[in-house]
Amino acid sequence: MTTIPENKFNNLLENTVTQLLQEKLELIMREEIKNFLKTEQPQTRNSRNGHYSRSFQTQHGTIPALRVPRDRKGLFQTRLFEPYQRREGWLEEAIIHMYKGGMSTREVAKFIESMFGTHYSPTTISNITQTVMEDIETWQNRPLEKRYSVIYLDGLYVKLKRNSVSSEAVYVVMGIDEKGIRQILGFYVGGHESSNGWREVLKDLHKRGATDVLLGAFDGLPGLEEAFREIYPKADVQHCIVHKVRATFPKIRVTDKTEFLDDLKQVYTAVDGDVARAIFDGFKDKWRKLYPKEVKSWEVQLPTLLTFYNYPVLTRPAIYTTNPIERMNKKLRKRLKPMNSLTHIGAAEKIIYLQATDYNEKWCGRAIRGFVDPDTKAAFESMYQERYGSSPREE
Hints:
- This protein is of the alpha/beta class.
- Among the domains are: about 5-75, no CATH class; about 90-130; about 145-240 and about 320-390, 2-Layer Sandwich (Nucleotidyltransferase, domain 5), CATH 3.30.420.
- The chain has 15 helices and seven strands.
- The longest helix is centred in the N-terminal third of the chain and has 34 residues, at about 5-40.
- Keywords: DNA recombination, DNA-binding, Transposable element, Transposition.
- This is Mutator family transposase.
């Protein structure tokens, strides 16, 4: 028995599949033109006029001579592909997915050429991914849910080339709605992170429909709390405890770090807010002589650091820190880092948009644990009613 070498077998299989696909496509087009002449051209003397050949790339291989029927008046157009289209849309989609996955336009171009023998310049790849820009504006202006139990705010920097290369801020907003679904609500690129920049971001969220917010979670950027309260005066503020611990850590002597941080941890892992404040009093008495500025800083900020104790127990691990949005931003930094600097703001927006929509698709059907508990939902509903009145369903 003769064994066919693997490469020859694969070529034979590919040719068989491609031939079968060609036969089916040509059959569909023959039926199309038959129906076209019968239903759309019954009163004219139009008729078939043979066919013309064209190459057509598919995900199963290239059809070198696809026979496309034509009519005498040149009015027929198959619905299988657009005029002058030489490939299925799958290749463009694949290019966008590769770009989203971290490959540069140059790397994508080389990969396409090595796989299909088709030369794509980095500029062509950029033009294909440019179609994403049409979606960004729609996505950025889409209506938001009215209610959000938590809104996280966090920024990162990206290097952009304008007249010179400089780092510019990306404002990223994540929210958990009343169903417990976490998603990226928006991102805004440009300038340097500031409270005024965040104020404009928050105004945009409010304008797009996110009017009833229970809690805002963010770091201690000067002026950010005031900007948040200006737009959402009925919402609470939770300053990120992890950020606060990180800021305190370098200021503690090496010999005291472990004991100091262990004592501090007992404050934000207590069973409730009253116990946490009592523990902090003991912590303050123990450490204020050695670290007066650090202890005072915690004391001043304690009300907004312990806000999470006012919320249902099962949700506290998700709201006392901005870790969820920081993990997202870490992925963005990793994706942007190999590029050194981007040629324009649109290039940054494309990458961030693709990552954000990918994140939202991943989490769209998964409620955050603890937010769907019946007691939690009842507690949140009570908070919404007390602060904002009627529910969306009653309006």
